[in-house]
Write a structure and sequence with these properties.
By secondary structure, this protein is of the alpha/beta class. It has 29 helices and 36 strands. Among the domains are: 287-423, Rossmann fold; 719-892, Aminopeptidase. The protein is globular, with a radius of gyration of 32 Å. The chain starts with 6 loop residues before the first helix and ends with a strand.
Length: 893
Amino acid sequence: MEKHFLQPLFNPASIVVFAGGLDPDALPPGAGRHVADQLRGSGYAGELRFVDIRMSGTLADLARSRAELAVIALPTVEEMDNALEVAGRIRCRAALIISAGLNAQDAARLHATARRHQLHLLGPNCTGFQRPHQQLNASIIGAMAKPGPLGLLSQSGALTASTLDWARRNSVGFSTVVSLGPNTALNIADALDFLASDGQTHSIVVYLEGIRNARRFMSALRAAASAKPVIVLKAGRQPAGNEAALTHSGAIVGSDEVFDAALRRAGAVRVRTFSQLFSAVRCLASRYQPAGRHLAVITNGGGPGVLAADWANELHLQLGRLDAQACAALAPQLSPQASLKDLIDLSEEATPEHFSAAIAAAGRTRGIDGVLVIYSPKLGADPARVAEALVQTHTTVGKPLFSCWMGDESVSEARALLNAASIPTFRTPEAGVDAFSNIANHHENQQLLQQTPPPLSHLAKPDVEGARLLIESVLAERRNVLTELESKALLAAFHVPVTKTMLARSPNEAMMIATQLGYPAALKIDSPDIPHKSDVQGVALNILNATQVRDTYNDMVKRVAQLRPDARINGVTVQNMSAQRRGRELYIGLVTDELFGPVITFGAGGTMIELIGDRSMEMPPLNQFLARSLVQRARVAATLGEWRGAPPIEMAALEQVLLRVSEMVCELPQLREMDINPIILDDSGALAVDARIVIQHAPAHSQHYGHLAILPYPGHFEQEWPLRGGGAYTVRPVRPDDASMLQALVKGLSPESRYFRFVSSMPELPARMLARFTLIDYDREMALVAVHRERRIGADGEFIDTERIIGVSRYVTNPDTRSCEFSLLVADDFAGQGLGSRLMLSIIEFARNKGLAQIEGLILANNSSMLKLMRNLGFQIKHFEEDADFRLAVKAL
């Protein structure tokens, strides 16, 4: 319920303008004059003053110009810096600098001045912002946008202006428009944070060119996407491939694909073109969200329906089909020429009644998740009558419904009817399929967003220390590439099944090892300088006897020495061939993106891995749901069930290997690249046949999983404490699935307790607030819940165990990143049992371990029990200057 720290910037009660003069009518042409005209002409109801930094007078004179927001539009860096100094001295809380072309050094100078005065600074190199609901146009991006529920964040001033121009013609309204450029102090993550908490913003559109801090961006994006739909259009797509990569994974994965994986995990939706941007917004804001990817296509023309089906296939959607019972009931209501086999083709004789019947049937069919209705104009038919039938039917469908009225002038009236009824309508079948794909992706990404796995799974504990010792010994030898033996030893430390492999340094050793391991055997060259053995004919398979081992060893060493005379050759590894004859060759890999950190990859393996290019990606940490989702997105997933006479693979074994790789990535920040290729899967399990791992010294920020863009669930912090009246409770970090228990806690409070905590008499938490409280970023905030297990006897005499949240403590890091704000809530029937003290001490410990210096919180002045508790815990209780009804509790950490 607290105000966001950017309220003084985006919702200022008063504004002071530094535009080069005291008289706005006498300002010279340029940005200053333009922004002054926009501020005065927008109808802003707050106090608006103009100040000239060159004027004479005392600080007392300046104090009369005090305002929440300073808008600066001056031509030179020196004047901008002077204006910031003045804004700080008259106690402005935020500043906006409208400018272009400032370099990083000049921008850093302005940032430093703003920090010294504790000003939240938007700019420089930005064209300003608009808040249509507040009638505030502090920008040079054009006339005020129409008020609406859409928030727009853009890193391009030109695209922002073009978007507003498009929106005016298409009656699209905005809650907020923010234009951000290079070297701005306020970044895209800060603005996302504000829009996530803004009640007037129902969905968010982001045009992105680059980000500076991946974890901060992911944190803000996840928080925003958990509360409202977020659509991202990113420019600067880079081609996949990296010539310097030392593994197959590094060679076939590009940074743009990693960005896709990051957005998917954050719960946002990515669109590829400007035209898709706002159609996605309209659809994501609709009443219904799909539960799957099956789209039914209803059409009166075969050609457009086939185009829709083809494009659905390209987007990995499935055609939604009517079941046999629905077909039998619908067929008598349609023309004899209608076809219901794949597409629901109503034929050219389709009437409005035919469309209504088909839509109703699709709405009742469980295997259909969305409906696209395509209408092609026919001679003598009335497109508007068909649209009217759609309008009358769509409220009963209960699923996403889209329309495509093809043509132009003859269907304009029909499109107007559909738009008025808020039925998304498109001009081409492909655009309609795109729209469904966006909301289907949104539904899937929201499921990924809810996953907060811990760094370690519940499988057998890995030998983490042994793995670290192995890595340190390799780095001590100034090597970055592990040999095959070392790579397999590292995998074995995390219980990944590997083939038995031994290194032979002579033909005789190779023969003895092969005899001990058993035939058929496989020989592979062992060299830290050869990333891909098959490129130099360094792999020999199905060797059946000792003589063949000797000859193969000699030939392989000579051939490799000739092809790569610069390579160090340690010898030849010998291993027995896998007995998994009907196994599938897969690969599991790791790449490290410069921005987002490690990413786990999966796909088809073998020697043609780069040519096949089958890969899906997920950001660590993984749990079983994320591992299964990663597998299902790869094309090779179609071969993992019963395939060409082979039984289905043991999926649990594959998921376990992925979880083990996730553990490696989380616990070993030195990992840079990795290939497990091939890893062979069949109905008996998994076996890693070959592996190659690239390492480097751990980055300085690797403590507390700092190398990960998504902080894992801190499952290690789970403590059990006794209750004074008997029994016990568990204190642990909150999880997304705690939402229902948290809501029950709030509903069970007395009106007085609810008012003390939320300064409101609301009987329950709104859905958005509930999501905000349970789906958190553990890096910048923490919520600890006290869970009490209760046992009672059911009607059948059996014991029933239930869990209940009986208390919550929370802190959120302040914008200064050195202090935090706390809150505390305890169930009424558990008050006075020491629960509040324990929760506060635990949250204080968390904040201290995070390196925060101070914890503070607002308490109502008449909440005597909370004030007494805080004094007992060593907090100082101060008067709160901004509101006499509150006290400020402060404690140094």
